[in-house]
Amino acid sequence: MCGIAGLIHRGGTDNIGKEMTSMLQAMKHRGPDSTGFALYSKPLSKKRYVMRFKVAEGAEARSGFAIQEQMEARKAAVDKRLQELDAEIIKAKAATEYAYSYELKFDGDLRELASYIEDIDDVEILSVGHALELVKDLGDATAVSDQYGLNKFNGTHAIGHTRMATESDVDIRSAHPYWAYPFSDVSVVHNGQLTNYWGQRRELERRGHRFMSDCDSELIAVYIADAINEGEDLHAAMQRSIDQLDGVFTYLIATSDQLGMAKDVMSAKPMVLYESDDFVGLASEEVAIRSIFPHEIDTFDPYEGEVRVWQT
């Protein structure tokens, strides 16, 4: 019983970190194990990226003295490999003792960069993008937001997820959202289950894609990003997913300048929507949207099989 949420400011920016924290915290009862944020600011220039990565799990980082040296060695290996790929580190920030944010200047192949960095044992890239920064960790929304300083994150749109672990471990790797490796700026949160997961995954693997998890949310992210890469627009790719992905699901997807929502034809997984001229908010429960408004609002439920896309 996980909770998902999304928001977009059309034509402007606001404190999306604070807003998304409030929305996800209002749904803490749907899953307190881990919380994740995919936050989008105005895109950097074409050759500039923000890379979020971790060199350990939080529990591992607190396991003793030896791990500190190991984490330092892993980070040093990341820096060395970036240098080998002619990726210049413009800014480097330690979000925690095991998670980092790098702003890079890079004019090479993003797949090569991601694969080479993740070839380092115990290093995982959480996201790479011109606009996207993906943050996820254990705990509820307030705990993760405070830990990573998200309450002052200004941007255009965001999606988020609060998780109750059912079939996989309680760790950062298994937390949502998921980045659509190796495509920049595409992320997904999802509530439900795909029944044709393995068939769709094998098809995408035959096309050269790799997966960091067995989570169907990651599959949706790669499925849509692959379709966009082949020339489809976001709405068309999402509409096709309604026909090709079996199961019960509601998902939100974000790109550098768009936010999309899709519900399967059975419409078993909840989604509530609020829309005004300059703002759209979506969540598994109405209480999440109301948490960021001091006044009364009108909400509605999208139809079964419905796809919607909004532009910044």
Structure description:
The protein contains nine helices and 17 strands. The mean pLDDT is 93. The strands form four sheets. The protein has a six-stranded antiparallel beta sheet with strand order 8-3-10-1-16-15. A five-stranded antiparallel beta sheet has the order 11-12-13-14-17. Strands 5-6-4-7 form a four-stranded antiparallel beta sheet, with helices on one face. The chain is α+β, with helices and mostly antiparallel strands and 312 residues long. The chain has helices at residues 16-25, 58-61, 66-84, 110-118, 141-148, 197-206, 216-229, 234-244, 286-290; strands spanning 3-9, 14-15, 34-40, 48-54, 88-94, 99-105, 124-129, 132-138, 154-155, 157-163, 178-179, 187-194, 247-254, 258-263, 272-275, 279-283, 307-311. Helix 6 packs across helix 7 and helix 7 crosses helix 8 (234-244). 29% of the residues lie in helices and 31% in strands. The two termini are 30 Å apart. The longest helix has 19 residues, at 66-84. The protein has two domains: 3-42 and 157-311, Glutamine Phosphoribosylpyrophosphate, subunit 1, domain 1, CATH 3.60.20; 44-130, Histidine kinase CheA-like, P2 response regulator-binding domain (Alpha-Beta Plaits, 2-Layer Sandwich).
What are the SSEs and their pairings?
Elements (H helix, E strand, L loop, with lengths): L2 E7 L4 E2 H10 L8 E7 L7 E7 L3 H4 L4 H19 L3 E7 L4 E7 L4 H9 L5 E6 L2 E7 L2 H8 L5 E2 L1 E7 L14 E2 L7 E8 L2 H10 L9 H14 L4 H11 L2 E8 L3 E6 L8 E4 L3 E5 L2 H5 L16 E5 L1
Antiparallel strand pairs: 1-10, 1-16, 2-9, 3-8, 3-10, 4-6, 4-7, 5-6, 11-12, 12-13, 13-14, 14-17, 15-16
